[in-house]
Amino acid sequence: MPENKNRQFLEFERPIKDLFDEIERLKAHAEKTKLDNSDYIAKLENQVFETRKQVTQTLTSWQKVQLSRHPDRPYTLKYIQKMGDNFVELFGDRNVKDDKAMVGGFAQLDGETVMFIGQQKGINTKMRQLRNFGMANPEGYRKALRLMKLAEKFNKPIITLIDTPGAYPGMEAEERGQGEAIARNIYEMMRLKVPVICVIIGEGASGGALGIGVGDRVLMLENSWYTVISPENCSSILWRSWDQKEKAADELKLTSDNMLKFGLVDRVVPEPFGGAHWDYDEAAANLKSVLIETLQELKQVTAEERVRQRISKFSKMGFWDEQPV
Description:
CATH topology of the largest domain: 2-enoyl-CoA Hydratase, Chain A, domain 1
Radius of gyration: 21 Å
Largest sheet: 8 strands, mixed
Number of domains: 2
């Protein structure tokens, strides 16, 4: 978790920021005057916790989108670091290059070796440029598939951590087969014989998320979102402006509670009050316990039955009406 002085606040987190500013002012004053005001500071710190709790209970769809993009929010590598041991990162698609927006490798989860794969956005401006803001190129999805096949070869479960505004839309990505790479991943993930758990930890946008999003169980963190298009782009298409992004977020029904209600995800993992960026350890511990429980459940089913259930699960998604001719 970032130090108080480096912490960043969203607009609707203003009440929390005001409390932090007051705490910092009191600490500086106490250091200067040697006065003991620790009791009052402790009271304000408790008030911070209560305010975080209140903020969580009144979030709109757009505010949840903002939280999913919070600059202090933990990304894939942070979750792997907090949940796993002995992580060994693997690189390259064995064809073009290593895509820094897609990371993966073996690690131990509660003593069991698993393959972690996920998008990594970067923790500062320089790293975000290196990671292409979490937008993978075709070689990133081919790298992910290579690692999935490697895990299947050694009979190791696969856990994917999804956090992307979408696959990279550049011309060079299309020239190298972006659509085919994502489609191939969806096809191959349906048939993997090992347990596959997919977790939306932040943004789950479009085919960029689906490229590593097909599994026996799909989980969502409480303040993440999952849909075909971002609210801003939806607004620009329907209203020719980004000004309606909040309305678009509501209409898209992209939040975790809606996704669970629609049956598109299997479980919502709670976050610390105010969002995962407030406590990395708690956020990772919550997710880790659910992953361990889910893995134990999936291992009770044969490989053939898991594949059959996975195909059936995704085949049933969506609903429609047919009009008589």
